[in-house]
Amino acid sequence: MSTHIARKRFGQNFLHDDGVIADIVRAIDPQASDCLTEIGPGLAALTAPLLEYMPHMHAVELDRDLVTRLQQRFKPSQLTIHSTDALNFDFLSIPAAETAQRKVVGNLPYNISSPLLFHLVEFAPHIDMQVFMLQKEVIERMVASPSDKAYGRLSVMLQYRYEMEHLFDVPPHAFTPAPKVTSAIVRMYPKPVSARHATDENHLSKLVAQAFSQRRKMLRNTLGDMVSLDQMAACDIKPTARAEELSLEQFVQLSNFLLAHPDH
């Protein structure tokens, strides 16, 4: 089989370090009964070892050349390949037994990582575990605390939906071609509905996006169109504060207050 040349437009960097691969497999903890979907299987560095633990799995792959290679290597009874863009894929279109753990894993293309994470939020309540390799900087943003330099919209909205663990880092030399950045592994579990307290999650999302739209500006400027000074005061939020100073709980409280007291 001819050598596959990594394509920049697909953000391809292929993992080849056996030790790292083994660590990722352990983090996923594949079980024979799992309904497991891999995003961007590439050259099957992760796919092949996962299939040692389970009879069948799914893969979402956009690159048609890689789809062909996967079809040549694995039987349909082992691997169902969805030749499409993960950004548009309905992850619940894959049937899963009621008792199965639904897992989504993969080495995500770094050029679409944030949009893809937000796309997966739609399916979060129905996915038991997500394990991804991402740029380390992105994972630091995902798990950041208020006032951290990395804290932002991604932090707030993903922490609202998930419990997340930054497991370990992956050096550039573990890939071909070697990326210019360090990568890392994150494991994500959905929070139960009982732990999510926003009255309207779409309103919360809009509020957070607006607050971080100009992160160096004070909230009285960024949220001026959505929130009055009296409403901020009622929620004990300083109008001179910046978005990065507010916790997830404060954003939820403010969103709920605005909906309950629109004319306050």
Automatic annotation (TrEMBL):
S-adenosyl-L-methionine binds at N13, L15, G40, E61, D85, N107. One of its GO terms (cellular component) is cytosol. It holds the Pfam family RrnaAD. Its EC number is 2.1.1.182. Its main location: cytoplasm. GO terms for molecular function: 16S rRNA (adenine(1518)-N(6)/adenine(1519)-N(6))-dimethyltransferase activity; RNA binding. Keywords: Cytoplasm, Methyltransferase, RNA-binding, rRNA processing, S-adenosyl-L-methionine, Transferase. Residues 20-192 form the Ribosomal RNA adenine methylase transferase N-terminal domain. It comes from the Bacteria. InterPro entries: KsgA/Erm (IPR001737), rRNA_Ade_diMease-like_C (IPR023165), rRNA_Ade_Mease_Trfase_CS (IPR020596), rRNA_Ade_methylase_Trfase_N (IPR020598), rRNA_adenine_dimethylase (IPR011530), SAM-dependent_MTases_sf (IPR029063). It is an enzyme of class 2 (transferase). It catalyses: adenosine(1518)/adenosine(1519) in 16S rRNA + 4 S-adenosyl-L-methionine = N(6)-dimethyladenosine(1518)/N(6)-dimethyladenosine(1519) in 16S rRNA + 4 S-adenosyl-L-homocysteine + 4 H(+). HAMAP family: 16SrRNA_methyltr_A (MF_00607). PANTHER family: DIMETHYLADENOSINE TRANSFERASE, DIMETHYLADENOSINE TRANSFERASE-RELATED. Specifically dimethylates two adjacent adenosines (A1518 and A1519) in the loop of a conserved hairpin near the 3'-end of 16S rRNA in the 30S particle. May play a critical role in biogenesis of 30S subunits. Belongs to the class I-like SAM-binding methyltransferase superfamily. rRNA adenine N(6)-methyltransferase family. RsmA subfamily. This is Ribosomal RNA small subunit methyltransferase A. The gene is rsmA.
